Every structure is written in structure tokens, then in C-alpha cells.
Amino acid sequence: MSTYDDRLKALREELARRKLDGFVVPLTDEHMSEYVGAYAQRLAWLTGFQGSAGSAVVLPAEAAIFVDGRYTLQVREQVSAKHWSYQSVPQTSTAQWLEQHAPDGGRIGYDPWLHTKGWVTAAQKALASKGAELVAVDTNPVDTVWPDRPAPSAARLVVQPDELTGKSSAAKRADVADWLTAKKADAAVLSALDSIAWAFNVRGKDVDRTPVALAYAIVHADATADLYVAPDKIDEHVAQHLGNGVRVHDRRDFEPALKRMEGKTVAVDPERAVAAIFEALQAGGATLIEERDPVVLPKAIKNDVEMAGHRAAQARDGAALSRFLHWLSVEARDGRIDELTASDRLQAFRAETGLLKDLSFDTISGAGPNGAVVHYRASEETNRRLEPNSLYLVDSGGQYQDGTTDVTRTVAIGTPTAEMRDRYTRVLKGHVAIARAVFPKGTRGGQLDILARQYLWAVGLDYAHGTGHGVGAYLSVHEGPQRIATFGGGDEPLQPGMILSNEPGYYKTGEYGIRIENLILTVDHPIEGAEKEMLGFETLTFAPYDRSLIDVSLLDAGELAWIDAYHVRVRAIVGPQLDGQAAAWLATATAPLLESAPAQA
């Protein structure tokens, strides 16, 4: 299994043994997670693709890999075109592709623990037109041919204390119980890992970059719950924290428990629960109601304690990033620094806070043309130096116990071209437009997306990703249901307490990438005499923008004032955490835009 060709051949041989004419390989786990543990990295093992979203279909004579616009360049660099055709999502889907390519009367396999009920229905409908059949497998054939597949993590759960959550686990379960009573249901299944972590005020180390533990839960209308997790992962401290209202079971007992719920009315989330959960409940005689996971919205609307924690984490993280940007201004002048060295140094600055638990995702450290790969990850094979007169894009974040951060800055190494400055300033104008937005309560994120794109659209440019995603409280860096996007979501009404990213960009293939990202908190924005409740955003992230990339002639008075005021706040929040040359550099970096900048430190 030393090559990806060998792995594809082995899978095809295994499918033939099982009398299957194809198999679908998604990048997810039994919890429909975006980021997954090493044991669930089936797509990466099979194809070489290292992105965080994608899927593949393997047929006897052809195979296809499906990615969205964030990975258009990356998939071509990492996955061989010799055996794989590249498919773009949402322009097509695995189900649509199967409708065109599956053999007539064929048997296409899928793992019911890795797909939603909705996907199964769509795939069955697509295959029916070919007289083909969708076949659930008992064991995943990729696992069968993966000889050194890692075992799931054995790390223990840890308690997330009430002083950081702002609400006890018992109170959260009581809220779910009230919701169940209103829905006339007996129980709700929680299968999303961040929902379980939030509802039970626990965290884990089972998924890189996301502090969650592999578990399932069933919460009942009497506010008690059953938690299904490997027994060795619960120590006495966690057991005491969970209390008598939570019954702990082996994770392997989850499916049998679902089959024992005869006569119960059970709420299940069709977006977050896999098809196997629905099948087990139906086999057991339960009555199902399809409802969104009752934890999703409360988790997204941060309480006062969570907001305070986020502000503290962002201030700490902003200082670490500013130290890095100062270091970069000194060390990157002569082209000696490369992408891996830079990302390692940034992580070290975060670690020096003494409070970093993990990164919130693998740092995107892209020099020159690598910056145009939206979700680029530097490796020894792709590592580039930060060359003079080029752009460097760094998208990074930290996991702190009081908050999760995510921030992108684009930096000129040397002297930028006029085109670079034009594109950067247009991205910045869109970024500022989102930050300054005022909108009626009930507005959806998708309605705001055009604010960020308008200045790029004006000259025939765009970017192939959403403008903003939700962010958790020491949880997932990508958290729903809120988004700022016109595709793939964005239809959730924004509410006070929701945190989103604000990250428009521009990418010139083969040359450079630009992205500017802060986190923003949705807040009330009262207006005297207003006839509607109005909302706006509070910016949470504080680190300077690159003044050398800003074409002031493209900014209006309001944008100039906002950027200068933002930089004043950066000095106020980050400045006291810096000293020496770093503090002097920050004063230069945050000087008013219409003032001549002092010499660099």
C-alpha cells in the first residue's frame, strides 16, 4: 500500500470480492464532523487529498473526487489525474455523478454511519434511473484494505468549568427537556461532537484542532441523559461533574440502545445524524420526528460569560499575532524565511501565552502563489520562501479554554505592485463594509454577503468561498448554523450573541492570494427613532492591517475613519501586552492612514 495507485487497486479488488460495483468515500466520521480523527481519514489515505471537505466515488473503471471552490487548486496538486477525475461542488454531487456514471443494474456500496438520511434518499433516486441499487455495508471496505489504520483516540474527557461556560450542564439539559416537552417528544439524540461537548460541559482530545470527545448522547424529557463513550475515557472527576442525572455507557452500546426505544417519540436531526441512527430507531419501533439538534442554536448564541471569554482570548491572541507580524517585518526582509518556519514561529508566539491548548486548525501559511490556494497547507514538498516583493497570506487561530480564535492577515514582503494594492484595498473595503453593517433583526447572513463582494464585482472579480462562518466557544472553529454566504448556508437569521468570521478575499492563480479576516460578534444596535430592532457587529479580533497594501485613494471618508479607529483600538488592547521593538513597531503599523508612517523598527 505504498502508493495511492496500490490503494485504489486494493479497494477495487475488495469491492469485487463483496460483489459491489462501486463505493462512496466521504470525508467525515460517524458524527458528520468536518474535522475528523486520524482513524476516519479514509479519503486522505485513499487519494492523498489533505483538505477538510470532500468525497470520492470509486467504480471498477473510473473514479472521481468531489471538492468545493476552496480546494480547486489543492486537489489538482495532491490527487493524481491519472486515476481520478476532478468534480466541483455544488455544481455537481456524488449522487448526480452516479446517475451518469454508475453501471446499469449495478450495486453501489455506502457506509450508513458516514452519510445522512437525505444523502441516501438522493443517491437511491439517482441510481433508480439506471436500475442500480444503493447497498449499505456492514463494515467499511476502505478499513478492510487500510493495513495501518490508526485506532480512535483513547484520550480522557476533561471538565469545562461553569465559570467558563456560564451555564451548568444540568441547566442545559433542563432546557433540552423543556424543548422536548414542547415538541411532545420523549428524547433527543445528540450525535454532533460539539453539541455533546457543549451540552455536558466537557471537552476532549479525540479530534485534532477541535477539543471534543468521541461520544453519543440521548437526552430525555425528564432532563436525564445517557452518554455513550469508551469507559476508559471517564475519570472520577468527570464522573462527579456529570452527576447522577447522566448515565454513562460504553459507546458500543449506542446502536443497541436505539433499537430498544419502542414506543418512544425521538427527535433526530436529519442534517447531523447519520442514516444508521434513523435505521436503528426505526428498527426498534420508535416514532421519529425530524428536528434540528436542540443544542445547535443555544450553542451558537453565546451568553455573557462566553462572550467575555472570547474577548479575553482574542486580545491575548491578537498580541501573539502582532508579535509575529513584527518578527516577520524584521526577519522576512531578505527572503530567508519560509512558510513552515513562519507558521512554527507564529505557533510559538501563541504558546508563549502559557494558555494555548491547541491550534484551532492547521495554519494556512501561503507565500506567493501558494497564497492563492484557499485552504493551503504547507509541507516539505510545497514549502516556499517569502520572497521579496511578494505577498504572504497567513490564516491561523488558537484554541484557548476561554475562546477559539481565527484570523487572517495578508502581508507585503518588500514592495507590493499597484495591482496588489488595488486588490487588497478592495478586499479591505468589503471587510469594512461587513464590520460596519447595520441591519434589521431577522436578517440572514446570506443577505449581507454582497456587502463584502461589491468592490471586487465592480471590476469583474470575486472569490469562491463564503464570507463568514460561525465560531464556537472553545469548540469548533467552524460552527453553524449562522453563516455569511450565498451558497452552502447563510439562511439562518442572525441573533445577538452569534460570532462569525468576516473574511473576504481575492486569489490570482499562480501569483498571490489575499484574505483579511476578523471575528465579529452580533450585537444589538439601537437607533433613536428606528421602527425596527436593529443589529450590528462588534469586532473581536485585534491586529494591524498592512498599511503598505492600502491604496488610500480607493477609500471613502467613512472607511478611512473606521480603519483608523480600529487601529486605535488595536493599540489600546494589544499595545500594553507588547514592549521594546514590538511596541514601537505596533505604533508604526497602526498610525493614521493619512499620516506618513515613521521608519520601521
TrEMBL record:
It comes from the Bacteria. GO terms for molecular function: metal ion binding; metalloaminopeptidase activity. Residues 310-521 form the Peptidase M24 domain. Residues 7-138 form the Creatinase N-terminal domain. Gene3D superfamilies: Creatinase/methionine aminopeptidase superfamily, Creatinase/prolidase N-terminal domain. Keywords: Aminopeptidase, Hydrolase, Metal-binding, Protease. GO terms for cellular component: cytoplasm. Residues 533-593 form the Peptidase M24 C-terminal domain. Belongs to the peptidase M24B family. This is Aminopeptidase P family protein. The lineage of its organism: Bacteria, Pseudomonadati, Pseudomonadota, Alphaproteobacteria, Sphingomonadales.
